[in-house]
Amino acid sequence: MAEPTVAAAYRQIVRSRVAAQASYRTSFAVEVVSQVFIVLVEFVEVYAVFHQVDDLGGFDFAEVSLIYGLSVLSFGIADLVVGHLDQLPFYVRTGTFDALLLRPLSPLGQLVTSDFSLRRLGRVGTGIAVLAVALVAVDVDWTPARVLLAVVTPLAGAVIFSAIFVATSTIGFWVVEGMEFTNAFTYGGNYLSSFPFTVFGTATAGSSPSCCPSASWPTCRRSPCSAGPNRSAGRTGCPGRRYRSPPSPGGCHS
User: Fold this and answer.
1) Are 114 and 105 in contact (CB under 8 A)?
2) Is residue 17 one of the residues assigned to a domain?
3) Burial of 79 (C-beta count, 10 Å sphere; 0-12/13-18/19+)
4) Residue 6 falls within a domain, yes or no?
5) How confident is the model at residue 221 (pLDDT cuts 50, 70, 90)?
6) What is the pTM assigned to this prediction?
7) pLDDT tens digits for 119-142?
8) Is residue 210 part of a domain?
9) H or E stretch at 22
């Protein structure tokens, strides 16, 4: 009989979590629908703004939808994998984390696999749908490099959000209630990154990238090189695309 491996142990933990959640199908369906509803309500906020204006910070509705889709998908992937790490202060306070330290597995790996919530797939699925529609709506001359960029960008954003989840959750080792601190950077960063940075004030735009890197990555990259007919010369966001130069706070330079 083959020796059990660490990867096999983690697979078994995740499989047991998935099986437990799938056994309550009605509850699972309700939770997934609620995640979809939350994302759609947030997107309605974007639509409501453009019902009153033609552009927002130099971006039209399709381009802001692209930024929103990138942010939602990136955050959804990170939330699916490590979103429950904001419970670390509770685990430390109740002694649950001490039990993890006694097992012959990585404490971080055990935390990541301890509460694999499939309900968060609703946010990921909705993010994919919004991003797909936005990619069709924006004016882009697709090349293999830009297709690759469209695929890599949400994955890179998920890595950024995941790093923020892990880094800010460690506050639980020093304070009793650290969830609010963690959520300020994770969910707050998700909200900031859902809109072009040019719509925020100078103080917010200048300070957010230094304390919350996820807040500026979609606008800085302008992925995947969208350009509408109202773009004029002055800023090159991608090869072959010229942009007018809006304010560039927070380290987004031409």
Assistant:
1) no
2) no
3) buried
4) no
5) very low
6) 0.73
7) 788 889 899 999 999 998 888 888
8) yes
9) helix 6-22
Contacts of 80 (CB under 8 A, 6+ apart): 116, 117, 120, 121, 123, 124
Q: Which amino acid type is present at position 150?
A: A
Number of structural domains the chain divides into: 1
> 50, 130 in Cβ contact below 8 A?
no
Query: Domain span at residue 68?
Result: 24-251
Closest-CA residue to 247 (of 187, 194, 181, 203): 203
28 in any annotated domain: yes
pLDDT the model gives residue 103: 79
Place of tokens 């609703």: 122
Q: What pLDDT was estimated at residue 129?
A: 92
Query: Can you give the pLDDT at residue 58?
Result: 80
Looking at the chain, the whole-number percentage of residues with pLDDT higher than 70 is 77
Closest CA to 73 of 150, 164, 154, 187: 154
CA distance 79 to 90: 18
Q: How far apart are CA 210 and CA 241, in angstroms?
A: 28
- Quick count: other Cβ atoms within 10 Å of Cβ 117? 17
**Other residues' Cβ atoms within 10 Å of the Cβ of residue 125:** 16
